[in-house]
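Lab notes, practical 5.
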Amino acid sequence: MSSTVFLDAKALACPMPIVRARKAMKDLQTGDILEVHTTDKGSVADFTAWSAASNHVMKDQQQEADVFKFWIQKG
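Output from the prediction step:
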């Protein structure tokens, strides 16, 4: 999936991946895609809840080894 902006949040613990994603999302236009990579297992629940609460759309979510990948469309 193509993304507008890539955010490397690997090795960051909760809540920093969400904090950085929120900051990156502010600079995007509606419909743009933010791709985030994390290694924090709690990110799966955190990004799902944050996306819904922020009116963004979780377009895709994958796990490759210890890296969790998210593609979130700005709402």
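Observations recorded by the TA: Strands lie at 5-9, 33-38, 57-64, 67-73. DSSP finds two helices and four strands in the chain.
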